[in-house]
Write a structure and sequence with these properties.
This protein has 598 residues and is α+β, with helices and mostly antiparallel strands. It is 58% helix and 11% strand. Strands 3, 4, 5, 6, 7, 10 and 11 form a 7-stranded mixed sheet that branches. The relative contact order is 0.09.
């Protein structure tokens, strides 16, 4: 199994030098998030992930969760690790101090989430789902609900879920059948069944707080008739502690390809007591608070598993001896050269490195936007951050998981036949990553959201909010002595982005299928251009550091070399995506459905 080491050097490069998190924290009044405090948190988080979570990753995959008469038992060590996590205050790192949190910036919580996900993705699902539920309760719950639920979830004694999907409907939530019948005491009787509920039942906390989408008896049809309810496994007693068992049960757990130590449950509600959160029939709005949190977290999983895979592949490529370099022996004292000397292995490793480090920059930029949206200076600045978040969220979720899956596949390939063998641990990373493009809205849905709702639906406003940033950057760096060619390449693609959008939009006015036909290629194009922007931002900083003689020269040289690889070997993929996006829908839609099997 790859031995995970938190990439603290690369993380610090982004937060210190590229995005200046510390300056942002000071501007937002987050005085507790001093450079020394942030450094200490990262160091302690790395120790916990490397020493506690990483050793449980393979054993958890092999043992899996166990289901017995409605009771789910997590793999050995999981419960103890969660208790240690809660005791260390990690659950409440970025939570509201009013309810027991430490009130540190959201971006700092995301840095810890990266290390958690990279060291043990399955384990990370349990606190990850809880954070999503906490965000929804904090945004839409009553003060009494916050006091009852957030205080205990922040402490880690209670955990949370999102109960959205049903067997007959996936993303189309307007079709849900779960019902909520008003009761005389102001509560609701919730009846129905939900599937694919991550962390829906387990033995790691005293109580599980389900956030459940259901429909009232008089609800309008479709998505306009959805409400959101808090349905705890154990009903709070007069003191607010877990009391009587609610009519909530786990019917089964799924037997999955990956993330086997994360309990994915069928949850049945048999007249369970629930409490409305937010307004009646406005549950979709409340749901999107936690869905957007989950989508960013899912995008991070692509980065997390890609990082773990790269670390394993890099070590193996330096150790494994096979053949000689085409240009002559590089290790003549050995029987053969390490495989890292071979160009195709270099291609795979550099692809992994370029996607991981580019995706990390995208994720951290998005995390900084989360801070600005919650605690930015003016209302206008907060609104601008919200718009950028809305635009980048589907790119984060879909592009980072698509490329994360490519990275884990490359990692397995570097090992050759050994990569296919379970004992090396590389195939687990592929299996664990495969779900990420599927859940929290499949990547096809994310692509429709980006092109149809965020870009065309805003008449291009959200796209321009980002491309203007890219344009200003390119103008400022147009004469950069070392990077001007890459800057010109990015500027050209940035302009093409708008032209491609206009072309698809005009075609869609005649045939709405054009949006669906072009959307996935459009999203991937958007992702590649977005990463090019962040790679150049990193390269500009690295070049400046080299010229000033600051820090480790090898680190900055590696940044510049990887940036060059990205622009020459990965960014050209945009050309294929443009051709495919412009090809139209006819070649997809002309074949009658009944002829597919002929």
């Amino acid at each position: 199994m790859p031995e995970y080491k938190a990439p603290l050097r690369d993380m610090r490069f982004l937060i210190d030098d590229v995005f200046d998190f510390h300056g942002s924290y000071a501007a937002q009044g987050a005085s507790d998030a001093s450079p020394d405090m942030v450094g200490a948190i990262l160091e302690e988080g790395a120790k916990f992930c490397e020493q506690v979570l990483a050793p449980l990753n393979r054993s958890g995959d092999e043992e899996e969760c166990q289901f017995n008469n409605g009771v789910v038992t997590t793999p050995k060590g999981f419960k103890e690790a969660f208790a240690q996590y809660a005791e260390g205050g990690w659950m409440g790192l970025a939570a509201d101090p009013t309810y027991g949190g430490q009130g540190l910036p959201h971006s700092l919580g995301l840095l810890i989430s990266e290390m958690v996900g990279a060291s043990n993705t399955s384990w990370g699902m349990y606190p990850g789902l809880t954070h999503g539920a906490m965000s929804a309760i904090h945004a839409h719950g009553s003060e009494a609900q916050k006091q009852t639920y957030l205080t205990r979830m922040t402490a880690g004694s209670w955990t949370g879920t999102m109960c959205l999907t049903e067997a007959h409907c996936g993303t189309d939530l307007g079709l849900i059948k779960t019902r909520a019948v008003p009761q005389a005491d102001g509560s609701y009787a919730i009846s129905g069944s939900k599937i694919f509920i991550s962390a829906g039942e387990h033995d790691m906390s005293e109580n599980i707080v389900h956030l459940v989408l259901a429909k009232l008896p008089d609800a309008p049809a479709g998505t306009k008739g959805i409400s959101l309810f808090i349905v705890p496994k154990f009903l709070p007693n007069a003191e607010g502690e877990a009391g009587e068992r609610n009519a909530v049960s786990c019917g089964s757990i799924e037997h999955k390809m990956g993330i086997k130590a994360s309990a994915t449950c069928v949850i049945n509600f048999d007249g369970a007591t629930g409490y409305l959160i937010g307004e009646a029939n406005k549950g979709l709005n409340c749901m999107f608070t936690m869905m957007n949190h989950a989508r960013l977290g899912t995008g991070m999983q692509g980065l997390c598993l890609g990082e773990a895979s790269f670390q394993g592949a890099l070590k193996y490529a330096n150790d494994r001896l096979q053949m000689r370099a085409l240009t002559g022996p590089k290790a003549p004292e050995k029987a053969a050269d390490p495989i890292i000397v071979h160009p195709d292995v270099r291609r795979m490793l550099l692809t992994m490195k370029a996607f991981n480090e580019g995706n990390r920059a995208l994720a951290y930029f998005t995390a900084q936007l989360l801070d600005q949206a919650h605690a930015g200076g003016s209302a206008e600045q907060r609104a601008e951050a919200e718009d950028l978040l809305a635009f980048l969220t589907p790119i984060c979720k879909a592009f980072m998981t698509e490329t994360g899956l490519e990275v884990t596949n490359h990692g397995m390939q570097v090992f050759g036949g050994h990569g296919f063998i379970r004992e090396w641990g590389m195939e687990q990373l592929v299996r664990d990553c495969r779900i990420a493009p599927i859940y929290e809205g499949t990547n096809g849905i994310q692509a429709l959201d980006l092109l149809g709702r965020k870009v065309l639906g805003s008449q291009g406003k959200l796209l321009r909010g980002f491309t203007k940033q890219v344009h200003k950057f390119c103008e400022a760096q147009a004469a950069h002595p070392q990077l001007k060619d890459q800057v010109a390449q990015l500027a050209s693609l940035n302009q093409q982005w708008g032209e491609l959008t206009q072309k698809i939009g005009l075609a869609a006015m005649k045939n709405p299928d054009e949006v669906g036909a072009a959307s996935m290629d459009y999203l991937m194009y958007s992702g590649y251009v977005t990463l090019a922007y962040f790679w150049l931002r990193m390269a500009v900083v690295a070049q400046r550091k080299l010229e000033a003689g600051e820090g480790e020269a090898a680190f900055y040289q590696a940044k510049l070399a990887t940036c060059e690889f990205y622009f020459k070997r990965l960014l050209p993929r945009t050309a294929a995506h443009v051709l495919a996006a412009e090809a139209g829908s006819a070649c997809m839609m002309s074949l009658p459905a009944e002829h597919f099997a002929l």
